[in-house]
Amino acid sequence: MFKRAAAALAAGAMAVVLSACSSGGAANDGAAGGGSDKITIGFSQVGAESGWRTANTKSVQDAAKKAGVTLKFSDAQQKQENQIKAIRSFIQQKVDIIAFSPVVESGWDTVLKEAKAAKIPVILTDRAVDSQDESLYVSFLGSDFVEEGKRAADWLVKEYQGKADPVNIVQLEGTTGSAPANDRKSGFADVIKGDPKFKVLASQTGDFTRAKGKEVMQAFLKSQPKIDVLYAHNDDMALGAIQAIEEAGKQPGKDIKIISIDGVKDAFTAMSQGKINVVVECNPLLGDQLMELAKKVKKGESVERRIKTEEGVFTQDQAAAALPSRQY
Ligand code: GZL
């Protein structure tokens, strides 16, 4: 899937290069009256809550520069009302395209209808909305979080294959109401429901941050007499939990096995030290694909409604070798 997208991307990029040359050369690029192929994107980012988010922001900003796209960027500090305000401001500024990662799934129809009324196309990146009105956005570029949750549980099932003893699990959930939290929870639950030895004793949001992940893990350690596994919806919460586990005199990765999602460098380092057992990758480097998508949308070309990013799973034995080439 990723190879196809990459090929399309390359072709798309080639088309952009050719049209740029032709708009400079004899043949024009088909824009009536030599219309500007400059693009202005209004981008509303969730916040700066995690290493993943920082890498995602850098990817979008670097890609915009490389593509010659004017980027109006706003950081919502993980508040939906700030994203709604930013989208309204982008509408006022008459940007060409609005792109955003919705901090939570619900509550977007009103503002997206305003963008539609203003004839400004919307691209979802990273996270999805639960709107039933498909006309409110042209494309959703990002990971399949249900699949990520399933991959996390697949590792657990394999790890405890053939063992009958109960496996006591605690879960650090992502931001309440967000697509990654909802879907990583449901994907994981779907796989383990087949085996009664797997018991999720406690599940609480750590809001995708290290500080909250540590705080909630401290509470789990106090309230749960025996924890075998921590399933963290992102690396930052897992890394915070590792601090809590060590401060409680236990060995992360051994006394309490840790499953995490994202694949930031710090998680690979922790994995190479034996403190995290498996990382399910979630790719934040969406910038180039977003810019290519935006150029096609601006030109009125048809685009795929759903573009999934290609991602892997990394276990402890692979961590040290993979670390040097990690890009985020
Ligand atoms: C997933 C992304 C999540 C990451 C977290 O695509 O939305 O938000 O897993 C980030 O690290 O905070």
UniProtKB/TrEMBL annotation:
Primary place of residence? other
Location of the Periplasmic binding protein domain: 41-301
Organism of derivation: Kitasatospora indigofera
A GO cellular component annotated for this chain's UniProt record is: cell envelope
The UniProt similarity line reads: Belongs to the bacterial solute-binding protein 2 family.
Q: Where in the cell is it found?
A: Cell envelope
The family database entries (Gene3D superfamilies) matched by this protein are listed as:
3.40.50.2300
**Which InterPro entries does this UniProt record tie to the protein?**
Peripla_BP_I, SBP_2_dom
Protein's UniProt keywords contain Hydrolase: no
Record keywords:
Signal
According to the record, the signal peptide region is 1-26
Q: What is this protein called?
A: LacI family transcriptional regulator
Give one GO term, molecular function aspect.
carbohydrate binding
Q: Which Pfam family, any one of them, does this sequence belong to?
A: Peripla_BP_4
Q: Does the keyword Signal apply?
A: yes
